[in-house]
Structure formats: C-alpha cells, structure tokens
Amino acid sequence: MSYARMKFYCDEERCIECNGCSVACAEAHELPVGISRRKVVTLNDGIEGKEFSVSVACMHCTDAPCEQVCPVDCFYIREDGIVLHDKEICIGCGYCLYACPFGAPQFPKDGAFGTRGVMDKCTMCAGGPEETNSAKERELYGQDRIAEGKVPACAAMCSTKALIVGDEQEVSKIYRKRVMSRGKGVQSAPYGWSTAYGN
Amino acid sequence: MANTWGYGAMTNSLGDIQNAKAIIIFGANPAVNHPVGFRHFLMAKERNNAQLIVVDPRFTKTAAKADLFAQIRPGTDIPFMYGMLHIIFKNGWHKKDFIDQRVYGMEDVMKEAKKWTPSLTANVTGVSEDLLIQITRAYAKSTPGTLIWAMGLTQHSIGSSNTRMAPILQLALGNMGEEGGGCNILRGHDNVQGATDMCCLSHTLPGYYGLSAGSWKYFAKSWGVDYEWLAGRFKDKKWMSKKGFTLARWYAGVLAGKAGEDKIHNGGTNLKALFVMGNGITSISQQAKVKEALDALDLIVLADPFVNEAAILTDKKDDVFILPAATQFETSGSVTATNRSAQWRSEVVKPMYESKTDHDIMFELAKRLGFYDQFTKGMLIKENKKSFKFPEDATDEIARIIKTIGLTGWTSKRLKKHQENWHLFDQVSMRGIGPMKGEYYGLPWPCWTESHCGSPVLYDVHRPVKEGGMGFRNRFGLVHDGVSQLAGVGIKDAKVKGGYPEITAKNIEKVLGIKLSEDEKKKIGKNWKVDTSGIIAAKCMEFGIAPYGNAKARAKVWTFPDQIPMHREPLHSPREDLVKKYPTYKDKTNHYRVDTRYASVQNKEDWSKKFPINLVTGRLVNLNGAGVENRASKYLAALTPEMFCDINPNLAANHGIRDGDMMWIHSPEGTKIKVKAHYSYSVGEDRVFIPFHFAGFFQGEDRTGNYPEGTKPYAVGESANTVTNYGYDIITQIPETKGGLCRVEKA
3-class SS at B354? Predict the structure, then answer.
C-alpha cells in the first residue's frame, strides 16, 4: 500500500485573482505584511484573451530542490509529502530561494544591505518540527490545521474552488471529475452537490 | 423592474445561474464584486457549456473569463440592447407566443429597435457590428439565458431606462419565469435587498407601501399607534405624502440658498442635522459639495464600527459625534440575500467595549426623543405581550404587516429552522430534503403564508403557486389604451384559468367563484396588501393562485417621461455630435425635494473639448464600499496600499505620464484628485478607471491628521467621488457615477 501524498492544484480556468487564498493564509498564520507564503500571479493582466491567474505557494515537491541545496540541512519531508523546515537550524542564506522554481521561500527582512531573517514558507498548514499545536509551533510556523483534520486556510477560503489541496489521489479525482462533467449538465437535486471540493 | 412586472428584485438566484445556457452581463463585475457567487457562473460554463458574455466599458476580471466581450462606451447600454433586439426581431428569434400571452407594449419596442441597425449601434456604442451580431446570435440562440447587472447599469441619468431595457430584452426572448433565465441583479452589499424591502429610503413605507394616507393608516393600525399622533409628528399632514431627500442629494438640502446651488422644496428650511448609520456619505458623488454641506451642518452623528470618513472630510470642529456601533457579529436577526431569501444570523460575541447594536442606539434615541413606547409597540401586538424580545418579535412584526412582497411566512421560528438546517438544501434549486422537504432555502419572497414554501424563481407559471409559481403582478390597472393587462396564460394547477386581477375584498367572490361567510366578510381586509386576517391569502392558496394577480409585464411605462426606454447621452458626453441627436431630459423641479439639472448642464458647453476622457469608477476585490473597514485590515490594505488610476499606456504616454507617476484627474465640477498612474490595457485610450474605496485625501490635501489617535487605516487616498460628475437619474435620483468625463495631466 502507498501512503497519501499531499498536493496543491490550482485550476486556472477557475482562479479569478480574488486573493482570498493569500489573505486567508496571512490572517491564519498572522504573518508580517510583506511575507507572502501564497500569492496570486496574473499573467497578461488586462489583455483580452490572454489574461489568466494562478495561485502559487510552496508546491511541496517530491524531490524538493530546496532540501537538496540547503547547506545546513534544515528541511525535512514528511511521509505525506509535505515539505517543512526547522527555523531554529535555518541560517537565512537564501540558497533555497535560488533553487526553488516557484519563488516560495520568503525572508522577513530584505533590502539591499539588510540582514535576512530565517526563511518562512507555506507549511500546507502543517506547522513545523515543534510539538504539534504547541505555542512555540504556532509562533514559529503558524497554525497546524492538518493535525486538526482541517483543510489548509487558503483552499478553505478559495471562492471558486480553483485551489484544491489534499491527498494527490483525491486532488486528481476531483479534477478528473470536473473535466469529465464538462458539458454534461447541471448537478442539482435530487442528486445534490457533493460537499467540500466535490464540485 | 418593479414598473415592468411588479417587483424590483433579482428574479432567480445565484445557484440557479448554473442552469443557464447563456449568461450576459451588463455593468457588473461579479468575479471582483461577488467572487463566491461567481463560482456559479463558472459552473454554468463548465457543466452547461454556457456562453459567458460580458458587456462592459473595461476588460474586467469577469471579462477575463468570458467567451465574448464587448468594450462598450459608458452610458450606451440602451443602444446596445436595441441593437441586439434589432437583430433578434429581424431574424424572428423572439418568442412570439410568450410576448402575446405575457407582455404588453412590445410593438413600440419593435418600432424603436428598427432604427438601431448594427451600423448605427456600432457608431454609438463603439462595439463593432460583427461582435454585436456574434453576441446577439450566441445569446438569443442559447436559451434559457440569464441577464445580469449591477451598478454599472443603474448609475446613470438614464439608469431607470436601463433597468427597464434589460427586462425587455429578456421578455422578448421569453427568458422570464424560467430556471436558468431571469434578470439577476447582483446586490452589492450584505442585506441590501433587506434594507430596500424595509425601505431605508425616502419614497415609500416599509414593504414598498407608498406614502398615501391609506398606507399610513394601515401602518398606524399595525403599529398600534394613533394615525393622528403620527400625523402630528410632521410639519403638517401634507408632508406625510411627500418624498424625502435621497442619499445622493442630501447635501443640496444643506447648501440651498447659496449662489449656484439647486433650489430645494423642504418646508421653508434647510437641513440642519445629519444622523448616519452606515458609510454612504463618502460613497456618493460630489464629495466637494458633501464636504461643504458637512461643514455647514449644526449637528453630525455618525454611528459606525469604524470612524466614518465623513468625520475626516469635514472641517467642522464641534457637535460631531462618533458613536461606536456594533458589527454584525455582535447581534442577531434576519438578513435578506440578493435572491430574496432570508437568513437568520446568530450573535457570535456580545457587543465589545462601549459599542451598541444599531437597534439599541435607535431605542435609546427614541427614549430620549420621547416616543419609545410607540416605536416598540408593534412588537407586542401579535401575542399581546408586556415586553418584547429583539429581534424575534421585530421579525414577527414584519411578517405580520408586510403583505406586498409576501413576508407573511417569514416568522422568526421558520427562519431559524432554515439556518439550523443549511445542510438539508440543494444549492442549485434551493429545494429542501428530509425535514425541510417542500421548502426552498430562506423562503425566498413572496412567501405568501406561514406554510408557503417561498418562490425561488419569480413569475414562473410552470410550477404551481404552492411550489413557488406565479404570473406577473397585476400592478398597473386592468386595461390600458383599451387593451387588457391580464395575462393570456394561467398558472400551473390553478383553479382560476388564465389571467386574473389582484385580489380584493370586492372581487374575491367573483374571481374565485365562492361565497364568503358573514364572519369572513367582517374580518377580511380591503385587499391582499392590507388583509391581516389572512383570508385572502388562504383562499388564494386553496385555489392555487398568487394573491397579487396574473397580469402582463409591460414594456411601456406610460407614467414615465420615456414610455419605452430611449437612449439619451450622459450629461457629460464625449460625443457632442450625439448629444444633439440624443439629448438628455429637461431640467426637473422638486425631484426628491431638489431641483435637478439635466439639459442645462448638458448644453452648458461642449464638455468633451476640455474633458475628453471617460471616467469609469468601480470596485476592487479586496475592498468594499467606502472601504473603511477593509483598509483597516493590514492584509487587505497591502494588496492595494494606494489609490491609483488604471490608464492605457498610450493615453498616459501622450501626457508624459509614466507607470507609477502621480497624475491629476480633473473633473468638469472644477475638482481634482491626485493619484498614482497604473498602466493597464484593460481600459481603452478614451477612458480611465479609478476605484472608489479610498478616503483620507481631498484634492491633493492630506486630511489623515483628522483621524482620532489609533484609527487611521493602513491605506488612505483620494476619493473617486471627488471627481465623479453631476448627474442624477430622472426617476430614482441615483448619481451618474458611471458615465462622466475628466481630463488627465502629469502631477
């Protein structure tokens, strides 16, 4: 048997750049302004026929480049695939930022000659290496919603359910269902909408 | 809307949009203004292959998801829709039997539509003939189609014609009273529908009862107060039936008498005090005038959870009171959603610190003013109680009194039950299951009796009244110009065939073919709107008919200055050549107590010479209304920390404005704002877009020092409404914020 592997997916046909995800993330983890664990990127803004938006955060890669390049080895990958790091080991060197294809790592202090603080990034709302749901975990990494059985704040807030998160099998099942049901008519009573991300 | 078919409200629901095969949006941007509701639009696209058509002056986030997009010149929606109708009638795509049975006056529309050939329409609207034809074909051939609008359609000097034109287009295509069809107006704020229904307005009593002596007497009786006492509260009786000032023009009531100001008709006195609950003061046009008026008042009271920005705008030093009002989380009660559904809301926390709920503020005020007993008596009547429980008894009072829009079924008990059983309702059809079977979520009004299910789709004759069916309302008499106004089609399962008039004590026996008992005759009210005995509603349910009649919708409103909607250029038009051809109205005296200028403004000069750029205002996704509560959130403010102007790079470059430069926007009113230029191709070279959520700066001046310590929001900036132009709708007096002019220059 295989373990669940957690993934994000953003359906760009549904993303409307409402920023619900990024604001929910910042509020949930009480991030300093300027730290964007998640952001919405819009390409070709205002150009007819070409504009689209997508919500991006740490993609929790299988073979995570950040982990590969980290000189102090502060990253660890959970069995469910969530990529986390230990802020007490991190030296804020920024190598992970160079390696990351998505620009996910964030640093609390910036500016040309400012000192950089330790790295901060999306935890998929799974906290960090500290004791689960402890005050210290909360302080350093924000909420640990996964431990509480909750959906990460971003996807929970997503207004159009463009952003899907969860076990990769489930994520692909939801997306597959979306594709398969295109043009097949509305699903209304007596069948009802399935809950959460089923639609 | 109300003048076309009876009610001015969204006819279907957000969920029902999923049933549409085509969606056409005029002057609305749901992806930004209704992001959660927009999911239903996307679902219609995905599941139903619905064509999403957006007609808007700029390429919005909604347009980014559209199949077809037309960048229309502001204020030309009527020509665009006539252009569509021209093509529809020419090709015979209209629904003839529907029009014959259910619409009055369509011939006049057909005659006008003949003039709007694709080439004329293209010239006036700026949309190419090819695109117009493509859009018309896509919309007319894919039925049911739903038509969506919001403030982009209403905020014009011809707004009340715009909102009749859209229903006419839907009537021509037979898209009314259908799942997946309808006119779906998106309400912009929480409980706007409820506030309108309860008449937080100046021209009717709650429930749209009008201001006649009969209506006042009905309310006096229902509130348990003496009519003469009520009348005694006015200067004299004749003022009871006069419309008051509107939010758009209250400032005129203060400034009248000064040079250049409009004359008022207000019982020989100017307005002296202002009591504000909500943020409207800084979200209407003419901010410079609003400031002048605020400064000239004797008293200003602002009840708001945040510092209302009227307090920042004014230079008045004394007698400005800021009352801390509680938020929605600190109180409970029912709110009405855009689709006429009620939803009960529970208190999350008790009012914090010194804040008080809105109703407590009003109760305290009524006590001080000496009419608390009369003010609250209506809540005691139903069960003859000694004391009331708020808001339950207030909700029950509303249910007891408001018959016009069918709130009889909205008892607090039922509304709470719906809230507690959210999970038992289908989100598309709103039908309940299990213990909620047979009811629609939130009992969308009209909900005729305490056991009625609610009406999810207005004017739907395909379902029985007991399942929410009905015809169009018989509101405009029985005959006009010798033509019967009653419908030529009956409601499903009704025992009264075909059309029938609204039910009164006089005609009930004849229409239903029954005999009332002596006891019933004694108890019955004069008509369905004032029959608190419930006899009319009960008999109507028994016979499967809606109490308000089954009539034709009218394309022609014979009491309006334009009987059928006619194009008229905005007061400030960039097309002087078209102003001659499509001039605005004559000036209007005593329009909600204020003389209002139309032709005299439009003809004063060729505005397009000095102010060649169209000014479009609108919302941002992270902010709402005047923006005060959102700009006080650091994360929301961080998304748009500064006031800006979307400007086409070509236009900007011609004025030497670089991306990120500061620029001035000058208005024909002689006012100006200084904002940051943001290059964007979402607007053409002939127009600019500015968001209207900012405040704190006024014509370049930083007024943020006026914020009491610790209350300054994270984001501040110029208010768009400092430069929106003069201009008000001829019927409703809504300001013309979506069709003005401006001039830009580098700051």
Answer: coil
d(CA B295, CA B289): 10
Instruction: Tell me which residue has tokens 């069709």.
Output: B739
CA gyration radius, chain B: 26
Does any CB of chain A come closer than 8 Å to the CB of residue B672?
no
Cβ within 8 Å of residue A35, ≥6 positions away: A26, A106, A108, A120
Residues on chain B touching A189 (C-beta within 8 angstroms): 426, 428-429, 431, 433
| Max intra-chain CA distance, chain A | 63
Kindly state whether residue A192 falls inside one of the protein's structural domains. no
**Nearest C-alpha neighbor of A18 from the set A197, A162, A133, A131:** A162
Average pLDDT along chain B: 95
ipTM associated with this complex: 0.91
Residue B64: name the closest of A156, A27, A13, A9 by CA.
A13
Q: Rounded to the nearest 10 degrees, how much is the dihedral formed by the CA atoms of B63, B64, B68, B70?
A: 40
CB contact under 8 Å between B32 and A18, yes or no, is: yes
Question: Hey, of B38, B47, B463, B619, which one would you mutate to test binding to chain A, going by the most A CBs within 10 A of its CB?
Answer: B47
Q: What's B603's DSSP letter?
A: T
Alpha helices in B382-469 (DSSP H): 392-401, 412-420
Would you call A194 exposed, middle or buried from its count of C-beta atoms within 10 A (0-12, 13-18, 19+)? exposed
Q: Which of A27, A154, A160, A180 to mutate to test the interface with B (most CBs of B within 10 A)?
A: A160
Q: Is residue A98 part of a domain?
A: yes
Instruction: Give the pTM.
Output: 0.94
Tell me whether residues B635 and A23 touch, CB distance under 8 A: yes
Q: Which amino acid is at B216?
A: W
Note the pLDDT tens digit of each residue in A123-144.
999 999 999 999 999 999 999 9
**DSSP structure string for B151-186:** HHHHSSTTHHHHHHHHHHHHHHTT-TTSTT-SEEEP
Is residue A198 one of the residues assigned to a domain? no
Neighbours of B307 (CB within 10 A): 20
Task: Evaluate whether B277 touches B240 at the Cβ level (below 8 Å).
Answer: no
Using CA atoms, how far residue A171 sits from A4, A9, A175, B163, in Å, is 11, 7, 6, 43
The minimal CB distance from B427 to the residues A34, A160, A193 is found for A193
Its domain, for residue A72, covers 6-180
CATH of the domain at A151: 3.30.70.20
Which residues are CB-contacts of B138 (< 8 A; sequence separation ≥ 6)?
Answer: B22, B51, B53, B67, B68
Yes or no: say if B537 and B408 are a contact pair by the CB < 8 Å rule: yes
- What domain count does chain A have? 1
Q: What are phi and psi of B465, to 5 degrees?
A: -55, -35
Classify residue A119 as exposed, middle or buried by CB count within 10 Å of its CB (0-12, 13-18, 19+). buried
- Domains annotated for chain B, with CATH where assigned, are 2-185 (3.40.228.10), 192-401 (3.40.50.740), 607-746 (2.40.40.20)
Per-residue pLDDT tens digits for B114-140:
999 999 999 999 999 999 999 999 999
A27 lies in some domain: yes
CA B571 remoteness from chain centre: 22
Q: Which helix (H) or strand (E) holds B192?
A: helix B192-197
Structural contact between residues B82 and B117, judged by C-beta atoms closer than 8 angstroms:
no
B275 SS3 class? strand
pLDDT digits (tens, 9 = 90+) for B82-121: 999 999 999 999 999 999 999 999 999 999 999 999 999 9
Cα end-to-end span (Å), chain A:
28
Distance CA A66, CA A99 (A): 6
Pair B357, B331: CB distance under 8 Å: yes
- Which two structure tokens, joined as six digits, stand for B481? 């110009």
